[in-house]
Design goal:
globular; five-stranded parallel sheet; 428 residues; alpha/beta; Rossmann fold; seven-stranded mixed sheet; 15 strands
Length: 428
């Protein structure tokens, strides 16, 4: 801005010096004063720092733009869960751009489809980092997809903002985890079930991959060693599985106090519909799931979930000004009936946390952004206050909600702020 103003003044000075221009010296004196004022005021103009200053590692940064990646499943069994994350990340980026961008640069994004296939996630992550040279990636959803891309990010020194609640037992320099880890979600929900429901016997159910299996391992230890309860059964079904009759029969035979579930993706639709068909409903059976958010409810239907519980850090019905503004903006962008789940909200945090870290670092360089990320706070998060821990996870609250017939969630429990602990002693 200063360079443009000075050049305009210089052209004006040259014009005033042309022969035949009357009063030239008088006006020239005024122009000289203007030039001096422009130079004096330059310190108050927030000119964008040069690209050489903010990008020393060959990222896709120009004087006007910075490029990032969005990597989620747009197709396949996980698309039902991941589409909201894409929409939230785009919304955050558009809002940041409307405020002037980051370090004077507008954000451009490249969207890639992981296609619910873990090798494809790894391939697309490499493409974003090596070919597109993005400054950060917002994405992945399942733990299997995160595990698939993690070696790529560590090898290429990329930066991933991962939005999903997960099993913990991981910490990487190259990842900021904006969802909850196990001690924040699983342990708090089991404690609530034991205290409020008097639960003693549990049947563990999940999809067959790393997050449900590791989560249920942690749950079993907590139930047996800390709550004095009993796990009466444990079952897993492949991703995309839709025939749950045999599993449901085994559950009915055991008559557990609680079904503790981590079925994911499109399988949720068949799972809950078949539970209802078997007369296992919220008024007869306590069921708490770690994996149903408002995003999944659009496929499951509230009549199939009524009376069951979910444990999350965010529900769309949270009553605070931050959340109301977020819901309004999300629906303006995606339609008045758009719903927002836990991971969608956590995905929305990613670009804002990255913006705060980049501005604190004064650079897009990954090492510099990572170095200043611990301690970054967001008081404007829809879920409420969050803060990046030294272990790259977020301080957050756990909430438990009961599902209504209309598909909305009624929060019945809210914890205090919980410090993230991805490597809890005695649970590994």
């Amino acid at each position: 801005m200063q360079q443009h103003s000075n050049r305009s003044l210089a052209h004006a000075v040259r014009d005033e010096m042309k022969p035949g221009v009357s009063g030239g010296w008088s006006r020239l004196r005024g122009l000289a004063i203007g030039l001096a004022l422009a130079t004096l005021c330059a310190g108050t103009v927030h000119a964008a720092p040069s690209t050489a200053e903010v990008n020393t590692t060959g990222l896709a940064v120009t004087d006007a733009t910075v490029k990032v990646g969005i990597l989620h499943s747009l197709t396949g069994t996980m698309a039902i869960s991941e589409q909201g994350s894409v929409e939230a990340e785009k919304l955050a980026i558009e809002q940041i751009n409307a405020q002037g961008g980051i370090l004077g640069r507008k954000i451009e994004y490249v969207v890639e489809d992981g296609a619910s296939d873990w090798p494809t996630f790894a391939e697309k992550a490499r493409k974003l980092l090596v070919q597109d040279k993005v400054a950060a990636v917002f994405g992945a959803w399942t733990s299997a997809s995160r595990k698939a891309v993690l070696p790529v990010f560590e090898r290429q020194n990329g930066l991933l903002y991962y939005p999903t609640f997960y099993e913990g037992l991981e910490q990487s320099k190259n990842v900021i985890y904006t969802g909850q880890e196990a001690t924040q979600q699983i342990l708090a929900s089991l404690d609530w079930l034991a205290k409020e429901k008097g639960a003693k016997t549990f049947y563990l159910v999940g999809s067959d991959y790393i997050w449900p299996r590791t989560s249920m391992k942690i749950a079993r230890i907590h139930i047996e060693k800390h709550l004095g309860g009993t796990v009466v059964g444990e079952d897993y079904a492949p991703l995309g599985h839709v025939q749950f009759g045999s599993m449901i029969n085994r559950i009915r035979l055991k008559k557990p106090d609680v079904i503790f579930a981590a079925v994911v993706g499109g399988s949720n639709v068949a799972w809950y519909r078949q539970l209802k068909a078997a007369n296992i409903t919220g008024d007869r059976q306590t069921l708490l799931t770690l994996s149903v958010t408002e995003d999944e409810m659009t496929g499951i239907g509230g009549d199939n979930m009524e009376g069951f519980y979910s444990s999350m850090k965010y529900f769309q019905t949270l009553e605070n000004d931050n959340n109301q503004g977020f819901v309004d903006a999300f629906r303006k962008a995606n339609g008045p009936s758009a719903v927002i789940g836990d991971v969608t909200q956590a995905a929305y945090l990613g670009p804002w946390l990255w913006k705060a870290a980049v501005e604190r670092a004064g650079s897009f360089d990954v090492d510099k952004v990572v170095a200043v990320s611990p301690g970054i706070e967001l008081t404007t998060a829809p879920e409420g206050y969050v803060k990046v821990h030294d272990n790259h996870h977020l301080w957050s609250k756990t909430r438990i909600a009961r599902w209504n017939k209309d598909g909305t969630a009624q929060v019945v429990y809210e914890s205090d702020l919980i410090e993230p602990n991805p490597f809890p002693a005695g649970y590994q």
